[in-house]
Every structure is written in C-alpha cells, then in structure tokens.
Write a sequence for this structure.
C-alpha cells in the first residue's frame, strides 16, 4: 500500500485566507480541492508539499452564475465534475462541457474531482506515473529527481502528455479562466493557460489559485468532445478531440479543432480548421479537415496503445466529431 508522506493540512475560510496561507507556506505549499490528482502524486512522491491547503469547502468556489445568452456562465473552479454535469444550464446550453466532464474517470472520482483540478491536471507519462521505487530503479526522469526524458532520451525537454478531458474543449470553445494571487487577479483565455512542455505545462504561477472557469455566450456555435481510451471508464484518454464550429447560412464561418493526449498541452490544429471555413460540412470537407488534423499529430511513447494506431485514430475521431456537428 502506498502511503502519503507527512504534511500539514489547513483549511482556509475564504479565498483571501487561502492566498495568505499559500504565501506563508512558500514553495512547500500546495492547494487541494478533490485531491484526485495531488494525493496519488504525493503517494508516489512526485509531489511532496509540506503544507496542503484544502479549498474544497470554500462555497465561493462552488457556484455557477451568469447568463448563457448574455455574458456566458462563470463556473467556480471548486465545483465538482458531477455537479457540473448535473447543472441544468450547463446540460442545456453547453452540452459539450457536460459531456467532457462526464467522461472523466469514474462516478466516485467525479464526485470528488473539480473542474479547476481537471483543467490543471498534471501531465502523465508511462515512466513518470510509477512508484518512487520503480522510478528509482530505472533512474529518475527529468520531471522529478532526474535529468533525462525516457520518452525521448536525447530531448532537452519533458514529453509527459496532457490528459485532461476539460482542457481541449475549453480551448476549442474559447473559454477563459481567472487566476488570483496575493499580487492580484488576471483573466486569460484558456488557450493561454497551457505550455507544450511536460514539466512547465501551464502558465499558472505556483502561488496562483484558479478560481473561475468562464464559458462564452451561446449563439450559433456548436461544439463536441470525443474521447478514446482502452476502457470506457476510469482510464485517461489516449486521444481527445474537441471541435467547435459556427455555421451561418449553411457554411462554416468559424472553426477550432483541438487534440488532447497527443502533446504536453491541448494541441490546436489551425490547418484543419481553415479547411472548414467558408465550406459546407459535407463528407468531402470533413474528410479533408480530418486529414489536415492527422498530419501534425505526433503521439509518443508516453501512454497506452501503439503510436501508429493512436495517430490514425486522430483522423477517425476528428471525422466523427465533425460528422456529429454536421448532424446537429
């Protein structure tokens, strides 16, 4: 049985209090809400904070407000994935958001995990997500305690893969997030939250707290998210495809296609989107967009199943996603 290392646990009474506690803890502090990512990492000694700040009970982080047709919805980052899936306005006006959240892990973990935690999910790798003893036996990787990336040993960077289900969709629909720290508050596009590096995989500063997830107003755009994994429950994606299109008078006026689990960040493929703009969502156009998404996708040996098959599935799943949007 893997056990947690010793740590001090504190519960703030407000976001302001949480920021103060984080500043006091310094680099040895970490926030936790549902704990479905942090605690397993701590058991494997991938993260070893001395002070854990529990924000899961902060009511201000667990509410949804706004209007889907006016300014969009603002979702508290501490809202559980299960609550997000059940929310009437999310299900009705943002079904793709509800679908992506519903595909995360299992019902038990969705009852604990939060939307903020899933957006900030640690990158994963076959060589990194092992016990401390296993990693020590092969020599540690550069993501923790070592100097080499076992996925690409000659690479100067870490190739751990982004495995969030919510992140690709957030980028595809043009969502935004709000981050706060003792220095102030900033609201940025979800696309600006991520780095294509397995170690420095977000632009969030260590002392910042993600407090809100902002969904754009609904108009004539539509979106979807498809997930490929070995098992239909629990498993992380080996491929995620998020697609958004806006159709006016039968032709696409705006499009975004974003791939998950093929890079260290949600990978937008603008060439595939440009194929769609100005065209009808017919089989020929959809096939051309799927081919364009296939070319830049370069899965690596950092997750499940074979590389060539995972790459081919990019074409298949992009086509399926666009066919779904065409039929909507």
């Amino acid at each position: 049985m893997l056990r947690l290392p010793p740590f001090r646990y504190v519960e703030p009474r407000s976001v302001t209090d949480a920021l103060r506690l984080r500043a006091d803890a310094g680099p040895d502090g970490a926030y936790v809400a549902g704990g479905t990512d942090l605690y397993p990492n701590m058991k494997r000694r991938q993260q070893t904070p001395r002070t854990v700040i529990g924000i899961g009970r902060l009511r201000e982080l667990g509410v949804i407000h706004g209007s889907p047709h006016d300014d969009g919805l603002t979702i508290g980052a501490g809202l559980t994935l299960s609550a997000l899936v059940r929310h009437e306005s999310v299900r009705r006006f943002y079904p793709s958001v509800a679908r992506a959240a519903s595909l995360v892990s299992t019902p038990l973990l969705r009852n604990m995990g939060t939307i903020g935690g899933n957006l900030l999910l640690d990158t994963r790798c076959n060589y990194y997500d092992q016990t401390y003893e296993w990693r020590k036996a092969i020599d540690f990787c550069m993501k923790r305690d070592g100097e080499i990336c076992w996925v690409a040993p000659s690479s100067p960077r870490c190739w751990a893969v982004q495995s969030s289900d919510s992140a690709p969709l957030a980028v595809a629909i043009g969502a935004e997030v709000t981050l706060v720290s003792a220095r102030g508050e900033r609201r940025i596009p979800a696309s600006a939250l991520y780095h294509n590096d397995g170690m420095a995989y977000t632009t969030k500063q260590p002392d910042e707290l993600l407090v809100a997830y902002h969904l754009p107003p609904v108009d004539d755009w539509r979106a979807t998210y498809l997930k490929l994994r070995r098992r239909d429950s629990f498993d992380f994606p080996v491929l995620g495809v998020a697609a958004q299109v806006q159709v006016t008078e039968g032709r696409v006026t705006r499009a975004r296609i974003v791939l998950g689990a093929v890079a260290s960040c949600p990978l937008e493929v603008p060439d595939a989107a440009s194929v769609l703009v100005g065209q009808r969502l017919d089989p020929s156009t959809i096939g051309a967009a799927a081919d364009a998404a296939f070319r830049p996708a370069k899965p690596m040996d950092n997750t499940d199943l074979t590389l060539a098959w995972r790459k081919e599935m990019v074409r298949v799943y992009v086509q399926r996603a666009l066919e779904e949007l065409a039929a909507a």
